[in-house]
C-alpha cells in the first residue's frame, strides 16, 4: 500500500466517523419500517405536538414529521398546552403549538393561562393576549401574577392594581390569590372579594376576612363573626353569630358564653353539642371530639363516624367499618357504635383493607382478619396494605409478595417491589429490573435496566444501555439495539433512535489509476 493510498484511507476513516449522526427509524405497530428521520432528538409533547431537534435547531414537526417551524432555541423549556416555552442563550420565549411565535426568546420567566402569557425580564413585565394577538408592556413592577381563574394582578410601590380590568388605575392595599375562585381584596374601607372579571362580588366593607377552603371565607365585622361563600354575582353570608368563632390550625369552633359549643364547617354548623372540651383535627374533614365525661368520638364531614365513647382515648381514620383506637398504651379497633370490635392488645395497627389489617408486636408486623384472628406471625419488618389479593411485605431487608393467608408468593426476595397502574409488579434485584404478573408470577426476569409496559405484550425494555421492545413472555419484539424507543399511540408509530452512517463515495488515486471506494 503506497503512502498516497494510506493517507487517503486515513482521511476516509475520519470522515466516516464524523458523518455518523443520530437518526430515528419510524415503524408502524406491526414493525414495518415507514421512514428514517435525521434528527438528534424527537419529543412527543402531546397527541398532536411533535418536536424534532438537530445539532443546531429545534423544529415543530408537521403531521408527516417534516420540519414545519423553527423554534429557534436550544431546548424545550416547558410545554403548557397550548404553549411551547423554548429556552435559548438569551432567555425564554413562547410559541403556540400551531407554530405562531408570540414571545421572543429573551425573558427570564413566563407564566401561562390558556390564552394569556405573563413574561418577566428583571422587574419588567409584558402580557400577551392571544384573543387580541397583542403584547402589552405592563411596566416596572414589584410583582405580577396570573390567578387560577386568569385574572392579572400586580404590585408597585406597596399598592396593588388589576392592569387588564375595567378599572386598571384603581389601587388596593392588598390583593391575595389563595387557590379559590375569588381574589381577596383590601381597601381603606375594609376587605372584599373580586371575581374573575375584576368586579366586586363582596363590597370592601368587612373588618377582617381570611380564606378557609375552596370558595369559603371566615370574617369578622361589627361584632359579628361571618362565614361567607363566594359567588360570581354576589357573595353570600352563610352564617353569622355574635358568639366568638375561632379559626386556628384549620379548625373552626364557636364558643357560647365562653364554652365550646359548635364545630363549624365552611358555611355553617358541623356539630352542635354540649360538654365538648377540645377538638383535634386528624385528617381531611376528620376530628377527634373530646367531652367532659371522658368520651371521645370521631367526627366526619357527614356526622359521627364513631359515636362518642369512653372505651378509647383517641380514634384514627379507619377502613371497612373498623377504626384503630388507642387505650392505655395499646391499640385495637372500634366499630361505628364506639364498641371494641377487636380488643386493644397491640402496640400499633394499620387500617383494614380487603378484610385484613396489620398488627405490630415488638418491632415486627403480622396480620389479623376482621374477626381478630391472627393469620400471620409478626415476622415482617413492614407490610403494605392489601390490594387485589396481595400485599408487599419486607423481611430480612428483602421484599416479597404475600397472599391473604400471609404466605409469600415468591420464594426469592427482591430489593424492591412496586405496583403498576395495570396491576403488575415491578421488581428490582441487584440494580436490575423485572416484572411479575398480577398473580405474582414471574413475567419478565430481573435483568433489565428499565421496563415500561405500554400495552399488553408491549414492554419497552433497556439492557446494557440499549433499548427495544419485549412481550410479556420476555420474547423480543424489537431487538435491544436502540439508544431510545418512543411510541406515539395517536398515530400508531414507533420511533427508534440509533447511530446512522450515511454512504459516502470517494475517488482514490493509486498508481495512476482511479478507483471508486465506498465508505
Automatic annotation (TrEMBL):
Pfam families: WG_beta_rep
Domain of life, source organism: Bacteria
Signal peptide: 1-21
Keyword presence, Metal-binding: no
Keyword terms of this UniProt record: Signal
PANTHER family in the record: DUF3298 DOMAIN-CONTAINING PROTEIN, GLR2918 PROTEIN
This protein's name: WG repeat-containing protein
Organism listed in the record: Algoriphagus halophytocola
Amino acid at each position: 500500500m503506497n503512502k498516497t493510498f494510506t493517507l487517503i484511507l486515513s482521511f476516509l476513516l475520519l470522515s466516516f466517523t464524523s458523518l455518523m449522526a443520530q437518526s430515528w427509524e419510524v415503524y408502524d405497530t406491526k414493525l414495518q419500517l415507514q421512514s428514517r428521520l435525521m434528527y438528534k432528538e424527537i419529543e412527543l409533547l402531546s397527541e398532536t405536538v411533535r418536536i424534532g431537534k438537530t445539532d443546531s435547531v429545534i423544529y415543530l414537526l408537521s403531521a408527516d414529521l417534516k420540519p414545519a417551524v423553527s423554534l429557534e432555541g436550544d431546548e424545550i423549556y416547558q410545554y403548557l398546552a397550548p404553549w411551547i416555552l423554548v429556552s435559548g442563550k438569551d432567555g425564554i420565549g413562547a410559541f403556540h403549538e400551531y407554530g405562531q411565535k408570540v414571545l421572543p426568546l429573551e425573558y427570564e420567566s413566563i407564566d401561562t393561562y390558556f390564552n394569556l402569557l405573563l413574561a418577566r425580564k428583571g422587574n419588567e413585565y409584558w402580557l400577551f393576549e392571544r384573543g387580541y394577538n397583542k403584547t402589552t408592556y405592563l411596566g416596572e413592577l414589584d410583582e405580577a401574577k396570573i390567578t387560577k381563574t386568569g385574572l392579572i394582578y400586580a404590585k408597585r410601590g406597596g399598592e396593588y392594581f388589576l392592569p387588564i380590568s375595567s378599572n386598571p388605575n384603581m389601587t388596593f392595599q392588598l390583593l391575595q390569590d389563595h387557590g379559590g375562585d375569588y381574589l381577596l381584596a383590601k381597601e381603606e374601607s375594609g376587605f372584599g372579594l373580586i371575581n374573575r372579571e375584576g368586579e366586586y362580588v363582596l363590597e370592601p366593607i368587612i373588618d377582617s376576612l381570611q380564606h378557609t377552603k375552596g370558595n369559603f371565607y371566615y370574617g369578622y365585622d361589627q361584632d359579628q363573626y361571618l362565614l361567607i361563600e363566594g359567588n360570581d354575582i354576589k357573595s353570600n353570608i352563610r352564617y353569622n353569630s355574635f358568639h366568638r368563632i375561632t379559626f386556628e390550625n384549620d379548625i373552626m369552633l364557636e364558643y357560647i358564653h365562653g364554652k365550646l359549643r359548635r364545630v363549624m364547617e365552611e358555611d355553617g354548623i358541623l356539630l352542635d353539642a354540649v360538654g365538648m372540651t377540645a377538638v383535634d383535627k386528624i385528617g381531611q374533614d376528620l376530628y377527634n371530639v373530646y367531652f367532659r365525661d371522658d368520651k371521645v368520638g370521631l367526627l366526619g364531614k357527614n356526622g359521627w363516624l364513631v359515636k362518642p365513647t369512653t372505651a378509647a382515648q383517641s380514634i384514627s381514620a379507619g377502613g371497612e367499618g373498623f377504626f384503630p383506637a388507642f387505650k392505655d398504651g395499646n391499640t385495637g379497633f372500634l366499630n361505628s357504635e364506639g364498641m371494641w370490635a377487636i380488643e386493644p392488645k397491640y402496640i400499633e395497627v394499620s387500617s383494614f383493607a380487603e378484610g385484613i389489617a396489620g398488627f405490630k408486636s415488638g418491632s415486627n408486623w403480622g396480620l389479623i382478619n376482621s374477626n381478630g384472628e391472627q393469620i400471620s406471625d409478626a415476622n415482617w419488618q413492614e407490610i403494605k396494605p392489601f390490594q387485589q389479593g396481595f400485599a408487599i411485605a419486607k423481611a430480612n431487608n428483602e421484599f416479597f409478595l404475600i397472599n391473604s393467608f400471609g404466605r409469600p408468593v415468591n420464594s426469592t426476595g427482591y430489593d424492591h417491589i412496586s405496583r403498576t397502574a395495570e396491576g403488575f409488579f415491578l421488581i428490582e434485584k441487584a440494580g436490575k429490573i423485572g416484572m411479575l404478573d398480577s398473580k405474582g408470577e414471574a413475567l419478565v426476569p430481573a435483568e433489565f435496566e428499565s421496563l415500561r409496559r405500554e400495552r399488553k405484550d408491549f414492554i419497552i425494555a433497556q439492557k446494557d444501555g440499549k433499548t427495544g421492545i419485549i412481550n410479556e413472555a420476555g420474547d423480543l419484539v424489537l431487538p435491544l439495539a436502540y439508544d431510545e424507543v418512543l411510541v406515539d399511540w395517536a398515530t400508531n408509530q414507533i420511533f427508534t433512535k440509533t447511530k446512522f452512517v450515511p454512504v459516502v463515495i470517494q475517488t482514490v488515486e493509486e498508481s495512476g489509476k482511479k478507483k471508486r471506494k465506498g465508505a
